Every structure is written in C-alpha cells, then in structure tokens.
Amino acid sequence: MTLLPLAVIGLVLCIGLYVVFRRQRHGGLAGGSAILATPHRAASLGSDRVYSEQEVAQHNTAEDLWLIIKGKVYDLSPYIALHPGGEAMLRNAGRDSTKGFSGSQHPARVWDMIDEFYIGNVATLETSDKKAD
Ligand code: HEM
C-alpha cells in the first residue's frame, strides 16, 4: 500500500521525461536557413501568374521587393535581409535585374536559389495592338 504513491510519482516522472525527449527531437528548429527550408508563400500562388512591368515596379521596398530576372518575377522580400550583397538587390527593386543577377559576384548556385521565390512571369508586349484594316 505504501508503495502506491511512489509508483504514481515514478510513472508521472517517466511520462514527463518522455514528453521532454520527444519535444527536443521533433520540436526544434530545422537546421540551415529557416527561409530556404520553408516553402515560400509565393509558391502557393502558382507559376501561371502574369504581371505587368508597372505592377512589378510597385514592389520596390525592402519589405516588398520583387525583381525581374530573365522574364520571370521573383518576390525576394524574405531574402533581402539574408542577401550577402545587402542593399545591392534593393537598388534594383521592382525592375529587370537580369544583368545584376548574372554578374560575376554570384556563383552558379544562385540560379537554384531563386526558384523558391518565383511568383510568375512578366507580361510580354501585346502584338495585337496593330491597327485593324
Ligand atoms: C539585382 C539583383 C542582385 C544584385 C545586384 C546582387 C549583388 C550581389 C553582390 C554585389 C554580391 C557580393 C557581396 C560581397 O561579396 O561583398 C552578392 C552576393 C551574393 N548574392 Fe546577390 N545580388 C542580387 C540578387 C541576388 C539574389 C536574387 C540572390 C539569391 C536568391 C542572391 C544571392 C547571393 C549570394 C548567395 C551571394 C554570395 C555569393 C558568394 O560569395 O558565394 N543575390 N550579390
């Protein structure tokens, strides 16, 4: 009879230790970059979106930063704070940055890195505006 309280305390301690152990294994932050390891919200918008250059130009701040690279639009707002080139990216915000991005300061892997920030394409100029005769 006197052993019962001890058994209950032991059981509670075991459950507590088990819960703490599980949290440490599964609840911690994933290694590496949290942003690059997390699917970007833009990915859910799909790749079929088409943006005009004027629309892209409105996203030209550090909090809301879009770039055009080779006709594709990227929302780099989550990346600007991590960019080793810092503000260089901001100077091109909202514009075609193919030249800056293709510069020798960048290793080839940056082409893989931008994929997760892809949100759509730039509208190509209409060819249907020629006069109908
Ligand atoms: C207009 C666009 C961009 C410009 C002008 C630019 C400019 C630069 C510059 C000047 C550096 C050299 C920093 C230094 O070593 O002191 C740099 C480094 C870097 N940038 Fe950019 N960047 C642009 C966009 C991007 C984007 C979109 C990404 C990735 C999503 C990126 C990823 C990197 C990485 C990884 C480095 C370090 C390269 C290395 O030394 O290994 N950049 N960038």
TrEMBL record:
<feature type="domain" description="Cytochrome b5 heme-binding">
    <location>
        <begin position="48"/>
        <end position="123"/>
    </location>
</feature>
<feature type="transmembrane region" description="Helical">
    <location>
        <begin position="6"/>
        <end position="21"/>
    </location>
</feature>
<comment type="similarity">
    <text>Belongs to the cytochrome b5 family.</text>
</comment>
<keyword id="KW-0349">Heme</keyword>
<keyword id="KW-0479">Metal-binding</keyword>
<keyword id="KW-0408">Iron</keyword>
<dbReference type="InterPro" id="IPR018506">
    <property type="entry name" value="Cyt_B5_heme-BS"/>
</dbReference>
<keyword id="KW-1133">Transmembrane helix</keyword>
<dbReference type="InterPro" id="IPR036400">
    <property type="entry name" value="Cyt_B5-like_heme/steroid_sf"/>
</dbReference>
<dbReference type="GO" id="GO:0020037">
    <property type="term" value="F:heme binding"/>
</dbReference>
<dbReference type="Pfam" id="PF00173">
    <property type="entry name" value="Cyt-b5"/>
</dbReference>
<dbReference type="GO" id="GO:0046872">
    <property type="term" value="F:metal ion binding"/>
</dbReference>
<protein>
    <submittedName>
        <fullName>Cytochrome B5-like protein</fullName>
    </submittedName>
</protein>
<dbReference type="InterPro" id="IPR050668">
    <property type="entry name" value="Cytochrome_b5"/>
</dbReference>
<dbReference type="InterPro" id="IPR001199">
    <property type="entry name" value="Cyt_B5-like_heme/steroid-bd"/>
</dbReference>
<dbReference type="GO" id="GO:0016020">
    <property type="term" value="C:membrane"/>
</dbReference>
<keyword id="KW-0812">Transmembrane</keyword>
<keyword id="KW-0472">Membrane</keyword>
